[in-house]
Amino acid sequence: MTRFADFHKRSISDRDGFWAEQAALIDWHKPFEQVCDYSHPPFAKWFVGGQTNLCHNAVDRHLATRADQNALIFVSTETEQERVYSFRELHAEVQRMAACLLDLGVKKGDRVLVYMPMIPEAAFAMLACTRIGAIHSVVFGGFASGSLASRIEDATPTVVVSADAGSRGGKVVAYKPLLDEALRLSSHKPGKVLMVDRGLSPFQRVADRDVDYAPLREKHLKTEVPCVWVDSTHPSYTLYTSGTTGKPKGVQRDTGGYAVALAASMKHIFQGQAGETYFSASDIGWVVGHSYIIYGPLIAGMATIMYEGLPIRPDAGIWWSLVEKYKVSLMFTAPTAVRVLKKHDAALLTKYDLSSLRTLFLAGEPLDEPTAQWIAQGLGKPVIDNYWQTETGWPILTIANGVEKAPTKFGSPGFAMYGYDVKLLDDATGKELTEPNQKGVLVIEGPLPPGCMQTVWRDDERFINTYWKTIPGRLVYSTFDWGIRDADGYYFILGRTDDVINVAGHRLGTREIEESISSHPAVAEVAVVGVADQLKGQVAMAFVVVKDAGSIPDDAAKLKLEGDIMKTVDGQLGAVARPARVRFVTALPKTRSGKLLRRAIQAVCEQRDPGDLTTIEDPSALQQIRDLL
Ligand code: AMP
Description:
Elements: H1 3-13, H2 15-22, E1 34-40, E2 43-48, E3 51-52, H3 54-58, H4 63-66, E4 70-76, E5 81-86, H5 87-103, E6 111-115, H6 120-132, E7 135-138, H7 145-155, E8 159-163, E9 165-168, E10 171-174, H8 176-185, E11 192-196, E12 210-212, H9 213-219, E13 230-231, E14 237-241, E15 249-253, H10 256-268, E16 277-280, H11 287-299, E17 303-308, H12 318-326, E18 328-333, H13 335-341, E19 359-363, H14 369-379, E20 383-386, E21 397-398, E22 415-416, E23 422-425, E24 440-445, E25 455-456, H15 460-467, E26 468-471, E27 474-485, E28 491-496, E29 500-503, E30 506-509, H16 510-518, E31 523-533, E32 537-546, H17 555-572, E33 581-584, H18 598-605, H19 619-628
Parallel strand pairs: 4-17, 6-7, 6-8, 7-14, 8-11, 11-12, 16-17, 16-18, 18-19, 19-20, 32-33
Antiparallel strand pairs: 1-2, 3-13, 4-5, 9-10, 14-15, 15-25, 21-22, 23-24, 24-27, 26-27, 27-28, 29-30, 31-32
Bound molecules: adenosine monophosphate.
């Protein structure tokens, strides 16, 4: 591997020259004057002085060459709908949505919160926002009113775009009551709520606030809304993600840097060609959906599939039937989805014509070897793991076959991508680990490359304090992941250093779940830990001390309380955050200074050695957990 090594080296040593070249992959309205302004670390400003527009790069610029080619392919196995939009049609729909937003008073820089299922209108809303310089903030449809309310409060949107309902496994999930409750809970009240009525679940309209999309769209069928040229550093969106504390962070992304980073990744990492089809089976509520359902493929001039439904309905061959039907070249999903498919007939993997498919990309959680082997052999296609975070917006570690073909190693997402100056730090000493096979915290030396987070929305202090630390003479960004690097430069990810858990590729904060469980009147204390799970990678396990020990005298009462607590979490955070089990104990293991020993609980749950317990106050508390399992 020499070509990639040189490519990577240059991206660090001649950072500005390297990224100036990549910047030619997108359209600029006004050329930039400076590639990277890192005069106020850790804040990096990319392509300073330049003006561009994300929606222009994703949609308008393709009109001249591919107006009638597929742009957005919507498939719902929930509602039995399939709709295909060409770039011309997408352009028209995005303008209609943009006109509606303008009509409702949205201005450049305003936030628009998008709480929607996987329907085309959600994509129109995102693109419409970036078209007019508004900042979208998509909240995953699986989140419930508490999660939604905290995001509304932080983003203070002018308008919320939502829909009556989503559907999962054939069951209608009403969104509007959750939204209404969130708006009741939130101290910030958006002026308007734009409602897409799918006819799935009748809903109440709040006078002077709720506006139906269909008639407003009719009014704007012919309204033209030109792209607003914004500074490269203008925020395009915020996306909330969990961390150590209960309050989710609004990851803020710029415009120019993000467009360049995605365009470069489509070329060097994904090797997508204009006119081909990309199928990312993620959700727009997650970063993969932002980068590789919406912006990345469209910027590259590819058609993108937006899929609403399960991977196993009507049967576990549905995805491959779509690959055949739409001649998908590149596919992207999470290991959990593959583990779900693995429980079904492997013959479904070869039932369809997959000749168009070149590569399956997997990301979002650790990829275990049996899962990788099963799908790679079953499809007869290369499988490429890639490791990144909401914060970075595009892969940190993977292989870049577009630069130079490189072998994959099972268990490793790959090596450091261009632009990322990745290091491992010794946790205790903070020193850089330079020898192979040493375990350390994976960090990135600043500046973060284009496309990564600019800051935490309205909280620069939190950005600095959460992510950055100084090692002699240098400022580094922490990924909060443990890793090791082998002699060939391949990294292996060994889990989080903080209280974030990863359930089926969904990132959750155990503190958020604890806060929600604590709100149940019967709960005195709670500890939530992530426990290894064969299917989902990890699941949340809760250990609860009740206020009145007499209130749970028998198993039936325990079961009822467990169900009640789960309902509390469902109602506040959403079913994604529901613990797999709630177990009852009379004390939680803590240090003498009162700190919860989450790692020890986790180790016991996973039947591992809990390590050094010299500071534990009451060893019988841990024994109780051991006995329960
Ligand atoms: P998110 O911000 O939701 O994308 O979650 C990011 C976190 O997921 C990372 O910090 C890792 O802990 C984990 N993660 C993502 N991709 C991978 C991967 N390919 N292998 C191992 N862990 C991953």
